[in-house]
Each structure stands twice: as structure tokens, then as C-alpha cells.
Specification:
MbnP-like_dom; 265 residues
Length: 265
Amino acid sequence: MKKIVLMIVASVLVIGCNNDDNNPQPTPNATVEFTFTHNWDGDEIENTDFDLLQYFNANGEQMSISKLVYLISDVTFTSLSTAESFDAGDYNLINVREGTNLTFTPDIEIPEGEYLVTFTFGFDDEDNQDGIYPDLNSADGGWNVPMMLGGGYHYMRLEGKFVDNTSTQTNYAYHTIRANDNTTTPITLQDTSFEVSLGQVTVGSSTSVEVKMNVAEWFRSPNQWDLNQLNTVLMPNFDAQIMMYENGSIFNGSTGVFSKGTVTQ
């Protein structure tokens, strides 16, 4: 009788073990934090660097930075094992000089694992709808774009001074928006937001991803920027907006302005 009882107990234990194997524990969900850092060809841009005429662009012009504010949206995680995509559909307006929103956690939880991570610089046309984001309508003095230029929202405001070809300190306003040509009827619009790929990222329980912007790249390639020719009133300049798009994104062999930095777990 004692042997029979032991055999029954052993059978229950075996069945229990088999049940655990058939019902693996679900992968825990996690959020991912992004930190945004900024540099000029590798030299970190700190708050004390603003307004100093200490940078030289690819065209040889001496220049400063007084403002750097930009928008990113649609951070997307695509699973490398299932190809499933996760997108919170939110956005983040980064003000470098004021040090606001330099860290951002998209409002979505995803299973831990391996992912391809991307985001959009600016808003794509689906999201770039005029006046629908109350917080942006008042941000940085109004982040909107006038309807005569197609409406929607700015992607970036990069401003400062440069020493022009008469040795005069002159303002520049490198503002990126959706390219527009209001000399046509109806207005011609072209989406000049772009997708940034950060490559493969392992997402664990406390993952943080650094996103680096090399500001010098906005002026380098494939279009070497001449601030004496293109300094202000760039928003209604269709061709200038296309050139900014090409310099910011990975285009025709250029590296683009964004790259993945340190990933910590």
C-alpha cells in the first residue's frame, strides 16, 4: 500500500511539471526611456555654450546657437521575433536650452525582447493636422505653422547668429516645417518629416536609450549650407525645406543628424 501511495504522488508531481511546461510564464512588459543629447561634431552642447560664436559650419562660417527646439513623434518598437509593432502614438517637444523634455518615456508597455526602434522627426502628414494639439499651440510662443504656409506644426527651430561675408553678426533661423509652395493653387505641400532608425535594441525591465543629435550635420551633407544665402525666411522656401530634409535624414550617402548612443539596462 505504501508503494502505491508513493507512485500516485510521483505521478501527480510529473503531471504538474508537464502542465508548467505547457503553460510558460508570459514575458513581462516594460517601458523604455529615451534621453536626448546634443553635440557639435562630438563636442557636447551644454547650456553655457548657447550664444557663443564658437562653432564653424561646413561652409566655414562662424556661428552660435541661441535656440534649439524640436519635435519627435511615433516612437515605434518592431519585434524581431514576431514582427509585431508597438506605437504609443504620442510625441515629445524637446527644448535644449531650457532643458525640458530631454527624457521621454512613450506611453506604452511592450514585452521584453529584441526590437527595431524608430521614431519620426516632426509629424508625418497623418499627424500634422492644424491646431489639434492644445499644448503645442502655445509651446515656444506657438508651435503652429500659419495656414498660408500649409498649417500644421513646426518640426524644429534652430536659431543663432553667424558672421556674414561683411564680418557682421547676422541672425539665422533654421526652421523646418512641411515643404510648401504657396505660389500654386492649391498650395503645393510635401511631407518633409523623416523616420529615424535607432537599429536593434534589447528591451529589458529598465531600458534607457540615448538619442544623439549632431547639430553640425544640419549644415553639412548632402547640401553644404551657405548661411550668407540661406539664413532667414526659410519657412516659405520650398527648396530650402527639401534641403533641410536631405541634410537631417540619411539621404544620398549622408549620415543624418541622429544616431543611437548608449543603451543601459
